[in-house]
UniProtKB/TrEMBL annotation:
<dbReference type="Pfam" id="PF02585">
    <property type="entry name" value="PIG-L"/>
</dbReference>
<keyword id="KW-0862">Zinc</keyword>
<dbReference type="InterPro" id="IPR024078">
    <property type="entry name" value="LmbE-like_dom_sf"/>
</dbReference>
<dbReference type="InterPro" id="IPR003737">
    <property type="entry name" value="GlcNAc_PI_deacetylase-related"/>
</dbReference>
<protein>
    <submittedName>
        <fullName>LmbE family N-acetylglucosaminyl deacetylase</fullName>
    </submittedName>
</protein>
<dbReference type="GO" id="GO:0016137">
    <property type="term" value="P:glycoside metabolic process"/>
</dbReference>
């Protein structure tokens, strides 16, 4: 069993809302237990969408982040590459820049924060920003000598409902974190605060989708609700 009260979590989110979609329940559970929670966003900018306006602005997205940060009581958050130059274009950045940001140059880098738990997106996402964030995290958290370079003991890849849209079979999560009704309620409430990103069902970011995935993962662990993660490193 993981004692969440003793943890310092670093969530790597390609865009604002990914941290909530993948880890909203865990963030609430850990914070309630006494953990620190920090969120490193990679990018944010104006986004074309299917709303009446046809896009959500970076200003709207920043306002939403602040509301969600207060909701979850994050201990810190940062955006590494803000602006339309990078948003949905992270695959154009040199991999070295992304890796270096995660590993050492960001205020919330692994080297600066020394988290005990790091959560990154899963590589199976169809979104190019998610894919390169996952690969950069994989490199930044690579094995080496712990005496000369900090190693977070627990490294996890979180899932989003759309990750299953993949031409290759995606393995099931091997770590299930049990959630309470309060945890899943906090997660869905946070997604409502991301008003530009929330959609009616059927949609991968609908409230029913989030709850349904939590019910499925809970059933797999013999409990009512859970979030699923893929373990990249677990050092006891």
């Amino acid at each position: 069993m993981i004692d969440w009260s003793r943890q310092r979590l670093l969530i790597l989110a390609p865009h604002p809302d990914d941290e909530t979609l993948g880890c909203g329940g865990l963030m609430h559970k850990a914070k309630a237990a006494g953990a620190e929670v920090h969120v490193q966003f990679l990018t944010v900018g104006d986004t074309a969408d299917n709303s009446a306006a046809g896009f959500s602005s970076a200003h709207e997205r920043y306002t939403e982040i602040k509301r969600v940060a207060d909701h979850f009581r994050w201990d810190g958050w940062d955006i590494a590459f803000p602006g339309d130059e990078y948003h949905l274009k992270l695959d154009r950045l040199p991999r070295f820049d992304l890796v270096n940001t995660i590993e050492r140059t960001s205020p919330l880098s692994v080297g600066a924060l020394r988290p005990t738990v790091v959560c990154a997106p899963h590589r199976s996402s169809y979104n190019q920003d998610h894919q390169v964030t996952a690969e950069a995290a994989h490199t930044a958290l690579r094995p080496s000598d712990r005496r000369s370079r900090y190693h977070p003991p627990l490294v996890l890849a979180y899932e989003e409902a759309a990750d299953q849209w993949h031409y290759e079979a995606v393995t099931s999560p091997d770590l299930l974190v049990e959630l309470s009704e309060h945890d899943i309620g906090a997660k869905t409430s946070a997604m409502r605060l991301y008003g530009t990103q929330t959609h009616e069902h059927p949609h991968t970011r609908s409230e029913l989708t989030l709850r349904s995935l939590a019910v499925l993962r809970g059933m797999q662990g013999g409990t009512a609700l859970a979030e699923g993660f893929h373990t990249m490193r677990s050092l006891a």
